[in-house]
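INFO  loader      accepted 1 record
INFO  loader      residues=165
INFO  predictor   begin
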Amino acid sequence: MEAARPARADDRERIDELRTEFFAELRAYRGGELWVRERMTAARPDESGAFVGTLDEAVVGYGIVEVSELRDGGRIGAVTELFVEPGAREVGVGETLVRALLEWCRDHRCSAVDATALPGHRAAKNFFEEQGFVSRSLIMHRELDGTDKGEPPPDMESSEAGGGA
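INFO  predictor   done
INFO  writer      dumping tokens
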């Protein structure tokens, strides 16, 4: 049976194994390599919660949520990592983890929770939508190659870049 519980110190090695799988999976998606680099070097938040998802007592997934203070004093949670082993998907472990993360955010006075799905990772997008998440923002990204002067790349017309000025 699937369940979720707060992570314990003795879960650390297993979470590290799952995290390695998670990062390898995400590197294949557009934006994944940079996302992994950001997570590997992210500053530790003031408040965070870590949970493990289990199937018949075996740890098969994990989730991490972080709290950010908004300038107006509000608080928002962010599911920064959520992963379930491929062989344990589709049986409710992910949903159980999300419920635990949302409850943790409620307990920590968050008014909302964000989660990230990389471009092209349709399964992650669909999963979060099934859990009641909706898109509220898209992050646009552009690599700089050192010779960049701020102009669009030569193969882009100004109308394709969002319209003319």
